Amino acid sequence: GGGSNAATGAGAGGKGPIVMGFAQVGAESGWRTANTKSVQESAKAAGITLKFSDAQQKQENQIKAIRSYIQQKVDVIAFSPVVETGWDTVLLEAKRANIPVILTDRAVDSEDKTLYKTFLGSDFVAEGKKAGEWLVKDSQGKSEVNVVELQGTTGAAPAIDRKEGFAEAVKAAPQIKVIASQTGDFTRSGGKQVMEAFLKSNPKIDVVYAHNDDMGLGAIEAIEAAGKVPGKDIKIITVDAVHDGVQALADGKINYIVECSPLLGDQLMDLAKKVVAGQSVPERVVTQETTFTQEQAKAALPQRKY
Ligand code: GZL
């Protein structure tokens, strides 16, 4: 890896397999589990040797993992930055070690675009917009629509951008008001705890906008414990479309899901081979994804892969 590929025989013209160091965020959600499975399966299928680490959603653990990959002289480093800030130093170390870096899933706020070769992942602002646009349509003719928002991990690109996109879209309907917004850290337990607090302090909640299915599923538990009917008394909009979310949507407990695909593995391995071979790659690769209503969920469930 690194400057002299001879050691691993990888890279352009090398004989041995490419070695990739992957620093994963954690295992906080169904999305993350599916994403990890996709990366591991795609590496195997691509003949790429994968070194994998789980940072338990802690940035310092991801930085430690990246440093260890630099020490091991891997051929390429890929990771999903748990938050947007604080990466320039370690990415500069990788650059100095002549090890290319690929961002997957989440973005960094680095001004220096030479610190990574490409960013493969969803457009989170667009996801938030799609959620807001559905609510604008659903709110026609209503005088007041009170929304509580379950935000993703504080400082994470999907949390920042899904909030921004949603807020932008709901400007079209002034009767929609976000009366409370708090992080549930993308976990089911976080969503449940925050929703319990929201229910105690807000007499009239019409809609929950959760930045991922897992927090929406936690909110369902809190809503039912409070004796209300999720999907009817309080509507729920989420992002991801993992199996448990699509099931709840089909069961009528969630009203709309904006898909965020975790299946980035194949595209990542293809980009890695190009990057290691010194070929140019697009600066940004946006993943394709759709949206699901309750009817579409029933039809889609049988063939969902995750
Ligand atoms: C989005 C990804 C988010 C998912 C959550 O690409 O970073 O992190 O929406 C996951 O489920 O925890």
UniProtKB/TrEMBL annotation:
Name the record gives this protein: ABC transporter substrate-binding protein
Origin: domain of life: Bacteria
Entry similarity comment: Belongs to the bacterial solute-binding protein 2 family.
Matching InterPro entries: Peripla_BP_I, SBP_2_dom
PROSITE patterns: PROKAR_LIPOPROTEIN
Pfam families listed in its UniProt record: Peripla_BP_4
Annotated localization: Cell envelope
Keywords, in A-Z order: Signal
Sequence ranges assigned to domain Periplasmic binding protein in this UniProt record: 26-279
Family annotation (SUPFAM superfamilies): Periplasmic binding protein-like I
Natural source organism: Terrabacter terrae
